[in-house]
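Form 7-S
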Amino acid sequence: MAIITKYLTFHTLNHAYTLLVNSLSGAVDIIDNNAKETIESLQQGLHPENANDIDLITTLRMRGYIFESEGEELAVLQKYRLIDQSSNEKDDRVKFVICPTMACNLRCTYCFESHESRHDSRIMAVTQLDNIFQIIDQVVSERKPAIASINLFGGEPLLPSTHSINKKIFEHAAARKLSVYITTNGTHIRNYIELIKRYQSDTQPRFQITLDGVKEVHDRRRFRSDNTGTFEEICSGIDSLLAIGSKVDVRVNLDRENIDHLKELIEFIAAKGWSSNENFYCDIAPVSDHHSKGSLPNLMPENEIMRKIGELFPDYWDIEKFFRLLLFRVLHHINNVVDVRNKMDNFLRFHYCEANRLQFYVFCPDGYIYACPESAGNEECRIGTFDTKMELSQEQIQKWQGRDVLRIPKCRNCKVALFCGGGCAMAAININNNIDDPVCNNAEELLAEYIQSMRRKIISKYC
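Output:
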């Protein structure tokens, strides 16, 4: 007997219409109450005989909502996984993450890195860097990725003490025409502007810088070891980067401490003129406790963040003018479908992130290679060494690379698994001590809250 796919969620738009979201086929449809009743009957094992219902069932089958059996549904899922693997092989992307140091000049209240790693003042040696770029040449030659790039990470990569090694990184990247993406706290941009300008045309540097609110709010959260704030230096750095044509992604990390101040930040960004600059982007992201230490009392689950945003900005248009939601991964597909300005991409997310496709090679001053930037310095997450030549542990690589929603037992029957990809592997290791025991962050609830926040837009556009 025909069955309704398990990868289906219902979202009420108003008294007359419901939104169907199918994470297996990617179908998103608006139905009336009669169609909803028919689908619910099918879920209960009933088979409607009404002619209109039969026509609807034919349409539902074409849209990927109905299968003859669970075996047929599983076969389709496995076929899609093969298609996804083939697509990723053709569009392979590799990010070579270099951590010049694990030391940091800030003491942010919610930092995911350990106290020990932030106080590790080792700086990557020139010989290590030379080995890294030999490895980069080797990997690029063998894998032939569609895109290869350098990412600077840490710790804080742009410290005065790392200027010399960063100069060599830019030299190597420029010689190979590799773009450079830099995750920095932005406090020492002024010391790097001339270096950035010198290599800008060859490396096209792009920066992610965190700004958690207006001055009073930000300085309570992101401060130096002497407790002085960083807001003014960061804003000055953003101004300097935009002035020379660099792309800047500002990240706003949200929790209960700062979410009520989002409107103030929007006003500040608009007054600065940043939002009208084509090189400026702004992303909001949840503060995450991937170590589950219980030391972050202001944490908000992602669905609660989305609910609060819906309350602060009842008109969805007000929030979308300023903030992207790229860091809420489960929302990518629905956002692409509803907002036609966004580029459509492959909605299937069998893996959570690049780490599960071995698209990260993370090099640290300790001489080890890691699969994920957040795992840097974690002994259990080493996948190889590079001090002399690259030696990789295939056992460790398989642990990361083979992780997908079909391998993870709890994900196989999840309604939104193919939008989520199994959640963060690093969080699973730290919180559950098992890479295949996912940390879901209320993914299904987040999707529901987001659709509610967009409800008026969907109705006005499609109903």
